[in-house]
Amino acid sequence: MEDRISNVKKIIVFFVFCFMSIITYLVYFDLFQAEKIKYDSSNPRMTIEEKTTIRGNILDNSGEKIVYTDIKTKKRIYKFNEVFGNISGYNSQTYGKTGLEKYYNNILLGNEVAALNISVFLNKIKDNLLNKQKRGDNVILTIDSNLQKRIYDMFGENKGAAVCINPKTGEILAMVSKPSFNPNNIDKNFDDYSKDNVNKPFINRAIQEYYPPGSVFKIVTAAAAIENIDDIESYKNKCDGVLKFGDKTVKDYQGEKHGDINLKNAFKYSCNNTFAKLGIRLGYDIIKKTSEKFLFNAELYVKDDFASIPIKSAKFDFDERDDIYLATSSIGQHEVKANPLSMALMVSAIANDGEIMQPYILDEITDYAGNVKYKSEPKLLKSAISKDTANLIKSYMIATVNEGTAKRAKNNKVQIAAKTGTAENAEGKEPHSWFVAFAPVDNPKIAVAVVVENGGAGSGRALEIAKDAILYYLNK
Amino acid sequence: MEMENKVLKSILLVTFLLYLNLTFINNKIDVLPIVFGISSIILIVYGNFIVRKFYPKGDKYLFLISAILAQIGITMIYRLDLSNSNVTIPKYALKQITWYTVGITVFILIIFLLPKLTYLSKYKYIYISIALALLSSTLILGKEIKGSKNWITFGSFSFQPSEIAKFFIILYFASALSKTIDKKSLKEITILAFVSIALLILEKDLGAAVIFFGIFMVMLFIATSNLKYVLYGVGSFIIGGFVSYFLFSHVRIRVDIWLNPWKYKLNKGYQICQSLFAIASGGLFGRGIGLGYPYLIPLALNDFIFSAIAEELGFLGVSAIIILYFLLVYRGLRAAIYAKDAFSQLVAVGLSSMMAFQVFVVIGGVTKMIPMTGITLPFVSYGGSSMLLNFLSLAVIYKISEGR
User: Fold this and answer.
1) Do A26 and B265 touch (CB under 8 A)?
2) Do B360 and A22 touch (CB under 8 A)?
3) CA–CA separation, B357 vs B363, rounded Å?
């Protein structure tokens, strides 16, 4: 009998363990799985909520409406038509959601529990008591809609993309991709858009596309040289035009010969001969390592506390080790790939004393009455290079504008620092033109990266767009 | 005594608040829930009074814990009725409260009528015959409902024989194991236990199979104090599990759904996915009674009532329920400690562990902690036969708790 009583006690302990394990599992479930499951698209609760909630608006940083819900018709209006197509994405019953409509869906439906303040809380109680229809929260972007529209219009008929960021904070000021699509007509035109393999309007070229960066990549090669060659100040190259590798050659624009040339001049004249030789001298590993300081080959996101929007990071990663490939990749050809956002981050490191800030697009969340529920804070993403290196390259970029290949960007209103780029692509077509810049040089407020597909050699169209954007942004 | 009164008062308060909440949820004030609430309160007070007045020696907490569990169930069923907007009378809640009343009556009657429990220890072969007859009856007469062939239907009335068989098998184990156990009798018990479990697996009633096995192991351990038997048992159960996984497609399906329900979310895994959606939407505090969408869960009244409660009362609410179940099981096992004789003791252990395993299998199943098997949650789920059986078991435990 005594034996049995002690056995019963053991059984009690066993059941304590069983029941505790359920509670522990539920804690685990609620902490780590519930979020994902709750917002699964096949959860019928989501559809019900969407129907009964007035979706929040997407505004630019001055409060200008970019996307809003018409209270009467319940229709989603995209005020700027194509201009924000690739940023806002679309919200369609038939075709689902993309872009910020997808990434910030929970905020727009009012489901994110952002830090509560008292007025938000009181407002919510009031609405519950009055049994009002639920309204989602508004998303306020870091984007300047005037700048965005200006750049979009400047592209004209050209294809390409541009990104402007504030190098000191990482705020994305504009992100243009062209051709774009009109989210207002998505239900009507979806098939045309998705079948259009020439214009690819659904691709956000600023973050999802790859272009060879061309001479813009010389910023990386220059940084590698400065940080790895001891007597770089006294370095001199004799540029005699063509560089031969078996039957392949690397030559300068129109076969120009620069003669005896130092790093600064090689940079401002964008001397391929010099940078190709530097690349071979430094070797694959050093160039790769330096490119990775500028977030090449990295896992990159436009990121805040609520969403991580993936960016295709620039790539410097290949297997060939022959000199020809090293030479061509040191000037941003061969297998090197980039897009405007990754290049804007690279140039913002030069502008911001070598530090790259986490890029973000969500500035604030407010409830429908305008009470602030959340405000983003700038975060350091990576200390890329030393302040000295950054300032040296900055002086090269200023020289490029004042005396070098970017002379057309020179103006008497603001000192710009820049680098031009020409990226050869398919045979027989005009090369892509690249332009990266920041301004004003002593207190940078905007960093820009523009690529214009088939925009011609020597930055051509890209330079004009970037210059216009900088002047427009700083002069208003 | 004073403690009991405190517990009783808080149970009544919670019951009243639950029904009060129901009066407001349809955007208009509805008096009917208040009527339900007052009836329930009278029922609990009166039941408790009778039990305390005439049979004061037993463990009154058994009745009180079952009362609050049943009330949570009825209010949830009521709430689910209300989401069906074209019905004015809460059909299922009305039926459930009726069953609850009948259950209390049965509880009191059994306490009154049950002879000394030791008299019952003599009929072990009768028990096992009834149990095996019930279990095999479904193979011949059974109807396939919800993918298991474990229901028998008479006209509009349907019941699961395995629910009743559970009761008899516990009586069999108790009477067989309360005698001196030698090798021969142990062999006999083991064979009969595994025959009944095998029958359940054939009928695709996997949940009941697990519960039978659990009860058998616990009772065997109590009677023999020999952990080796339990290890053998668990070992052979695991092997049996593997064999049936490869042998029976219905076992395989259950396990596959458990491993990745999202792959089958539109067909075989629909139920469990909907259940997980509900629990996930509930989060820590739940959405509040009337503010969630528990009616989207299939079988929300029966097997998935736990998920419905999790959606509206949240993790805190369901943790409270889990703790209540543990207390109930604990009071049952406590009765076993104070039992007069080995037979009563084994019966109390058997019945308590039956409840414990049932709760574990149901809750673990609907939360995807373990593979899902369709079973009802004791006292909470909608259903007459399970309510009656639970009160029957409770009455027997109560009787045992009267002690030496």
Assistant:
1) no
2) yes
3) 10
CA distance B142 to chain A (A): 33
Q: How far is B280 from chain A (nearest CA, A)?
A: 4
pLDDT in tens, A214-224: 889 999 999 99
Report CB contact under 8 Å: A16, B279.
no
Give me the helix-helix angle, A460-475 and A145-155, nearest 10°: 160
Q: Give the tokens for residue A189.
A: 């035109």
B326 touches B65 (CB < 8 A): no
pLDDT per position as a tens digit, B268-323: 888 899 999 999 988 888 888 888 888 888 888 888 999 999 999 999 999 999 99
The rounded distance, in Å, linking the Cα atoms of A366 and B400 is 63
In this structure, which amino acid lies at residue A367? D
User: Measured between CA atoms, how close is B204 to chain A, in angstroms?
Assistant: 24
d(CA A96, CA B44): 52
Q: Cβ A8–B336 below 8 Å, yes or no?
A: yes
Question: Is the pLDDT score of B154 beyond 70?
Answer: no
Amino acid identity, position B171: L
Domain ranges of chain A: 208-360+377-475
Mean pLDDT, range A366-394, rounded to an integer? 89
- List alpha helices for B55-123, DSSP H: 60-82, 91-113
- pTM, whole model, 2 decimals? 0.69
Nearest Cα to Cα of residue A89 among A73, A70, A76: A76
B338 touches chain A (CB under 8 A): no
For chain B, what are the domain ranges?
Answer: 1-113+273-404, 117-238
Q: CATH topology for A208-360+377-475?
A: Beta-lactamase (3.40.710)
Confidence of residue A128 (pLDDT cuts 50, 70, 90): low
